[in-house]
Amino acid sequence: MRIAVVALGKIGLPLAVQFASSGHEVIGVDVNQTAVDTINAGIEPFPGEAELQERLSELVPAGRLRATTDYAEAIPGADAVVLVAPVFVDDDTWEPDFRYMDSATRSLAEHLTPGTLISYETTLPVGTTRERFTPMLEEGSGLTEGTDFHVAYSPERVLTGRVFADLRKYPKLIGALSEEGNRRAREFYEAVLQFDERPDLPRPNGVWDLGTTEASEMAKLAETTYRDVNIGLANQFGLFAAAHGIDVYKVIEACNSQPYSHIHRPGIAVGGHCIPVYPRLYLSTDPDADIVRVARQLNASMPERLVAQAEGILGDLTGLRAVVLGAAYRGGVKETAFSGVFPTVKALQDRGAQVVVHDPLYSDEELARLGFDAYAIGGEADLVILQTDHADYRELTPADLPGVRLLVDGRNATDAARWAGTPRIVVGAAA
Fold first, then answer.
1. Which residue from 83, 93, 92 is spatially nearest to 284, judged by alpha carbons?
2. Which of 220, 250, 255, 334 is catalytic?
3. Is 255 in the active site?
């Protein structure tokens, strides 16, 4: 097949590579000329994705994968087009921001030719594929969905850093606007993906047809929103447990010892491109989902709550040197999307603290570009807040942070024995 992939970011590029690795001719489209040039040179434009560089080094010289900024070069004659352009959410209104996907859809429509399958993989509110993008495609192309081309929705279900492994591990969900669209989508994904055996699943791993775009859209929102709500519940339990001298981690371990309880872990923040964002996409079409809204609000409030706890112990934070450990949103991943570092730093600065940030994955210059003053382990500190569970932080002791008067461990990542004698707050445990 001849396949076009629109948007060559941390999901789109590995997808394009996966398709090419399966024996197909792939051309990727991206508005970033630098990224396009880097890919065409056979070089990964971002670090940290397992297998990506090795595959690029093989596929690009062989002519099986190339990139362009020109839709006219990529779209006409394509058997399938996969779109992974981003959809964001407004921080204030919680309304979806479709500008990038709208632009990609309109550009695609201008060059669409009959016979193409179009699959949206970016997470979308329920109904968006049918009600927003399909009419846009028909209007821009003059073609008719279901007759001249077919539209499907198939959510990406992978984590950056392990995309290729996740593509094999998890069923590929599809849903189209017609029976023929579902058939085409199934044939396409079966031709570009390979699946691990999963005896734990109720049916064989592979392409799972959910019947409609709406069902497929909801499946992605539901599985991610579940995690946010579960974390919100864990945070609620954690706040209560800490206030009553209970170790919530022992409680959760006990609860999860039987098969009907799957309580997640509390923490200072929920970051990344997915969990903080997709519940708000769900709420955009189900405004009555109060449980989703409250959980999202509680999770977003955790940095402020923990800084307030620190203030309650230390008193006025004005002029104190506050060290935030970790800029990344999760351990071992060089990514700051919706990271808890931003609200944590703001909460500290609002109280007059002198805030510095450390992260083993970021240079001082990179931290400066994020708006932070850098900290080096061994420097003086009054207050330390562990925001990211990097492996480097697990062995820290007060001697590594001279002068520290309080540790706020937002991830339960430090060793209590190593911190004996120094006040320590752990989310979900008594101080």
1. 93
2. 220
3. no
